[in-house]
Amino acid sequence: IKEDLALPVGTTLDRFIMRKQEDFPFATGELSQLLRDIALAAKIVNRAINHAGLTDIGGAYGKQNVQGEDQQKLDVVANIRFIRALRNGGEVAAIISEEEEGIIQTGNMKGKYIVAIDPLDGSSNIDVNVSIGTIFSIYRRTSELGTEGNLEDCLQKGTEQVAAGYIIYGSSTMLVYTTGNGVNGFTYESSLGEFFLSHPNITIPKKGEIYSVNEGSFNHFPEGVQQYIELCRVRNYSARYIGSLVADFHRNLMKGGIYLYPITQKSPLGKLRLLYECNALAFIVEQAGGKASDGQRRILEIEPYELHQRCQLYIGSTDMVEEVETLLVARG
Ligand code: AHG
Ligand code: MN
Ligand code: MN
Ligand code: MN
């Protein structure tokens, strides 16, 4: 009986979202509905991922996306699932996705929101059973209700996000999100089909001892970054790099650490995408007490000029990010 009573019977994600909505007497519940739509798609994608080795859903899709990456079948499936859930939900006017070149019009012209999404993050890890994720940002549209979402709606600065989050399909599946009032994490109980509040008020340690970077590209990093990595080695920090941004970020958020993706020869502007990778995690890390920078600027203040814009990313514990920034200023 002890065993059974230990099962989660806490706050469900739905209940949590509803309670939060009660804090805003003039809120109409549309953002809450939108978050629930994302959670629903996350459950469906989670199921597909869990079956990946059993069904014909693994492997390459045979096409490239707009950034010239080989799409995996699950990239495409996740993209369809999230778009469908947001279209059916009705709250979103337009979507930007890693997997689609242009703005996706949902047909919900009365929808107040714009979503930017990386449907499946960590593509290269799908077929080897390593943690992958989904990243999303939510903005209020600036265009008039009753029209289609336009480029201006989609190119808002990260500071304008009304909510952002990620799902990590890891040893357990979690949804972590913020609406600008702290960060909360929910763990999925698959037999009940519910996310339960498991990590209330997440904060990131100010200092950390983990650094996460693809060190294979060391020789191409800016000198300041090379110097920082050398410092990490001297200090005996732990090197941890999964190769799924969501998973690397999540670990460092929990334990304290820094994730670095500098410019390289292969990616002269950085690899990660501002609108649907960096901004969401930057909003979350700041809400948890950490920092996100492109080496010089706060990520959230970068002015976007195109949908698939890339930038450098240094994100995690405040002291660590500031140290890299200082070295980059001194060394370039
Ligand atoms: P995606 O799978 O959505 O295209 O993102 C890939 C990103 C990110 O998940 C990860 O941190 C990074 O690529 C890894 O890049 P490297 O293989 O160059 O280290
Ligand atoms: Mn990709
Ligand atoms: Mn990604
Ligand atoms: Mn992706």
From TrEMBL:
Give me the residues that bind Mg(2+) 2, please.
118, 121, 277
Alphabetically ordered keywords of this record: Carbohydrate metabolism, Cytoplasm, Hydrolase, Magnesium, Metal-binding
CC cofactor note: Binds 2 magnesium ions per subunit.
Q: Which cofactor does it need?
A: Mg(2+)
E.C. number: 3.1.3.11
Primary location: cytoplasm
Keyword Flavoprotein listed? The answer is: no
Catalysed conversion reaction: beta-D-fructose 1,6-bisphosphate + H2O = beta-D-fructose 6-phosphate + phosphate
Fructose-1-6-bisphosphatase class I N-terminal domain location is 12-200
CDD domains, alphabetized: FBPase
Task: Give residues annotated as binding substrate.
Answer: 121-124, 214, 241, 259-261, 271
Keyword hit for Magnesium:
yes
Q: In which pathway does it act?
A: Carbohydrate biosynthesis
Q: Which residues form the Fructose-1-6-bisphosphatase class 1 C-terminal domain?
A: 204-327
Q: Which GO terms describe its molecular function?
A: fructose 1,6-bisphosphate 1-phosphatase activity; magnesium ion binding
SUPFAM superfamilies reported in the protein's UniProt record? Carbohydrate phosphatase
NCBIfam families the UniProt entry points to:
PRK09293.1-1
**Hey, which family's this protein in?**
Belongs to the FBPase class 1 family.
Q: How does it assemble?
A: Homotetramer.
Task: Spell out the protein name for this chain.
Answer: Fructose-1,6-bisphosphatase class 1
- Annotated source species: Rufibacter quisquiliarum
Q: Name the gene.
A: fbp
